[in-house]
Design a protein that fits this description.
Blueprint: H1 3-9, H2 14-31, H3 38-49, H4 51-73, H5 79-99, H6 105-129, H7 138-155, H8 159-168, H9 173-197, H10 204-229, H11 233-253
Helix pairs in contact: 2-3, 2-4, 2-10, 3-4, 4-9, 4-10, 5-7, 5-9, 6-8, 6-11, 7-8, 8-11
Subcellular location: Cell membrane
Organism: Winogradskyella pacifica
Main location: membrane
């Protein structure tokens, strides 16, 4: 089929195109550092394409946005944290690949919502105590790494979990964004072969659709990067907490 014929084969309405464009625009904003809106992106794409298929459509755009974020925030990454998390994230991804065809989407969303909201409550408690202690427990980083890998493979829903982890690490704004940029770039590259060869959710047809949507990702990233510069470290932490909590509520009742 030709390029145009592939796009036409999706049979998308004007409203659906608008919704998808808005979702990938939010993706660009999210990857620029305005965290907490990833839930909205996942919900919109799942509604248009279906739960599993949407993960493959989203993944190449995530990688493109990751590249922009890595270039922009490269010097702020904390590689010690990345090296600590990556092995357990890979384990989570592999478990996610294994159970991806069988797990109930509803049960998964409810479970993740409870974890996210519980994590937010813990963070609010720590914020009120003005605690500056950074968690040293290896079990904490292991568990958060595993949950991040599992959630990102099942439904690209790792953002809220990683947000909580980075907040507990007391990262400043740019460290938060730079570390997350490199971490998710590595994760998404690891996920790509599984989507191509096992789940078969990434194909020539999905990549053609991605090529039309990439400009919206770039536009969102540029706008988001500008907004991030205007936000103080304190207000950034508050925004992440609020946005993550809202995401957990959406997952719980969505």
């Amino acid at each position: 089929m030709s390029y145009i014929e592939i796009l036409q084969s999706y049979n998308l309405t004007a409203l659906q195109w608008l919704a998808i464009g808005f979702a990938v625009f939010l993706l660009g904003i999210s990857k620029s550092g305005i965290k907490g809106v990833s839930i909205i992106i996942v919900v919109i794409l799942a509604f248009v394409f279906g739960e599993k298929a949407s993960t493959g459509i989203l993944l190449p755009m995530l990688i493109c946005a990751d590249i922009l974020a890595v270039i922009h925030y490269n010097r702020h990454a904390d590689w010690a944290i990345i090296k600590k998390l990556i092995p357990w994230i890979i384990v989570g991804v592999l478990v996610g690949v294994w159970v991806g065809n069988d797990i109930s989407e509803l049960i998964f969303k409810r479970l993740m919502a409870v974890i996210i909201l519980a994590s937010v409550l813990i963070m609010v408690y720590l914020e009120k105590r003005k605690s500056t202690n950074v968690p040293k427990n290896k079990l904490f980083s292991t568990g958060m790494g595993f949950l991040t890998g599992f959630a990102t493979m099942i439904g690209n829903l790792a953002g809220p979990i990683s947000n909580i982890y980075f907040l507990t690490m007391r990262f400043k704004k740019n460290e938060f964004i730079g570390t997350a940029a490199w971490l998710f770039f590595i994760i998404n590259i690891i996920k790509l072969p599984f989507h191509i060869f096992i789940w078969e959710t990434v194909s020539i047809e999905s990549l053609v659709l991605n090529s039309v949507l990439i400009p919206a990702v770039l536009l969102g990233f540029l706008l988001g990067a500008y907004i991030v510069k205007l936000i103080s470290n304190v207000n950034y932490r508050r925004f992440i907490l609020i946005a993550t909590a809202i995401g957990g509520v959406i997952m719980l009742f969505g």
